[in-house]
Amino acid sequence: MISAEILVVFFGLLSAVSWGAGDFSGGFASKKANVYSVVLITQAVGVFLLAVSAYLLKEQMPPLNSMLWGVLAGVLSVLLC
After folding, report:
1. What confidence tens digit (pLDDT) does each residue in 16-44 have?
2. How far is CA 40 from the centre of its chain?
3. pTM of the full predicted structure?
4. Residue 42 in contact with residue 26, Cβ under 8 Å?
5. What does the alpha-carbon distance between residue 16 and residue 19 come to, in Å, rounded to a whole number?
6. Angle at Cα 77 formed by Cα 71 and Cα 81, nearest 5°?
7. Cα maximum dimension of the chain
8. Are the CB atoms for 38 and 30 separated by under 8 Å?
9. Residue 81: HSE in the Cβ half-sphere, 13 Å Cα cutoff
């Protein structure tokens, strides 16, 4: 069995590599294409992968009021930033 300390380090490094690769790829793609199209495509891919992984893991839908709070937070973050 792998210890919790090793898993913390492993997943931390995996997260850093994933974040860095995404940041590099997004910056590289936005040099070649319109920034808004890059953002739209990456968000669409993210929503698709999230939906597929939730389906495969048999996750339940969150309550409606939680989803509404999430929508409100997203809208306000766009308007206030």
Report:
1. 999 999 899 989 998 999 989 998 999 99
2. 13
3. 0.61
4. yes
5. 5
6. 160
7. 48
8. yes
9. 6
